[in-house]
Amino acid sequence: MNSIYRNTYSEINLKNIYKNYLSVKKCINTKNIIPVVKANAYGHGVIDVVRYLLSKNIDYYAVSTLEEAIELRKEFDKIDILVMGIVQRKYFEIAAKSNFVITISNFDQIADLALLKTTLKVHLKVDSGMNRLGFKKDKDILNIFDILSSNSMIIIEGIYTHFSTADNNYDYYKYQLRRFEQVLKMIPYNFDMVHASNSSSSIKYEQEIPFTTHVRLGISLYGLTLDSDTKFLENTYKLITHVSEIKHLDIGDKVGYGATYTAKQKEIIGVLPIGYADGFIRKNRDGDVEINGKRYQIIGTICMDQMFIKIDDNISKKDDVILFGGLISIDEVATRLDTINYEIICQITYRVPKIYSK
Ligand SMILES: Cc1ncc(COP(=O)(O)O)c(C=O)c1O
After folding, report:
1. Residue ranges of domains in the chain
2. Does the CA dihedral 147-149-152-156 come out positive or negative?
3. Distance of CA 224 from the midpoint of ligand 1 (Å)
């Protein structure tokens, strides 16, 4: 646990992450879950999350960048780490020596592959319709497979694709699934790992897919999805602060930068030691926070390090102020900010220390 000197912190519930893992596991039969722990485990703190999941014997993880993989490897020498983003050819030797599994997504990555000195595990990425990463055309897929399979330094461990609409467009999801199935039928090889589903499709459709072995689970581990029928997931992230200063306003008193709030009557306000440099961005103004199970309104302009709320006589500096993760859900904040829940948990910055409950 980090030291907390200003009473502003994130409370991360590791037990609930594991509970969510087990809940989704029930939706996917006997298949295996690869926890997606990119972006600092969606803001939850990757080292603590992986350490906890590893204690439950979960030992295969996915990240996005080589930097993320290296950070994990420094702490955990035994786990498998799939890098889902592009790793350039010039870094293959680093990846191989660290025993990473890298994603092969385009032909530039495999130039001069003959010069590779260390064996490297790879997964082949198929673009089944998202037009982001991966090989799209049959001839390219067959060609890359031939190149990889004829190189003795390359171990082809897996193949995968990614869905772009599992949460909101079943027909397009189905189209991508069929395309991936076609590709698998076309390649004369038995992959150890075949994976496609993210959280949404794991929960809703994975049971119907006969040809995959794994799913890649991100947001649902952290208690969220973009679907409305996933209430069985448990919350894992609370953002908490306290009132650090109490001000009694007279009628006409103005608050904060730009004097954007004016008291219409005698009012009490609380100053909170958290601001946009902590990732609680200015657009949150006019939203609510929770104190003692009740809503209190954010007022004025959110500063870099502080913000203001309207309070009453019942509130003291000892009370927890919950910005989200309780009565105010992460989804509510996402709606307030016109974005998705993923962004809310990822945008809290390094400056907010984390407390872990197990
Ligand atoms: C390639 C890939 N796989 C899996 C995931 C996990 O998706 P989700 O967080 O929706 O479960 C992501 C997340 O964006 C991803 O980019």
Report:
1. 14-222, 237-357
2. positive
3. 13
Q: How far is the CA of 198 from the centre of ligand 1 (A)?
A: 5
CA 167 → CA 32, 33, 198, 306, distances in Å? Answer: 21, 19, 10, 36
From the candidate CATH numbers 3.10.20.30, 3.30.450.20, 3.20.20.10, 3.30.360.10, the one assigned to the domain spanning 14-222? 3.20.20.10
The CATH number of 237-357 is 2.40.37.10
Pocket of ligand 1 contains residue 311 by CB under 6 Å: no
Q: Is the CB of 203 under 6 A from ligand 1?
A: no
In whole angstroms, give the CA distance from residue 207 to residue 209.
6
Annotated catalytic residue, options 9, 18, 31, 38: 38
Q: How far is CA 216 from CA 171, 185, 199, 200, in A?
A: 21, 22, 7, 10
119 token code pair: 């064996």
What is 66-86 written as a DSSP string?
Answer: HHHHHHHHHH-SSSEEEEEEE
Q: Taking each helix axis from N to C terminus, what angle separates 46-55 and 14-27, rounded to the nearest 10 degrees? A: 60
Place of tokens 């994990």: 72
Q: What is the pTM of this model?
A: 0.97
Measured distance CA(216)–CA(179) in Å, rounded: 19
Instruction: Please tell me the residue having the least CA distance from ligand 1 atom 6.
Output: 218
CB 274, CB 280: distance < 8 Å: yes
Distance 302 CA to ligand 1 centre (A): 31
88-99 per-position pLDDT tens digit:
999 999 999 999
Query: Mean pLDDT throughout 109-132?
Result: 94
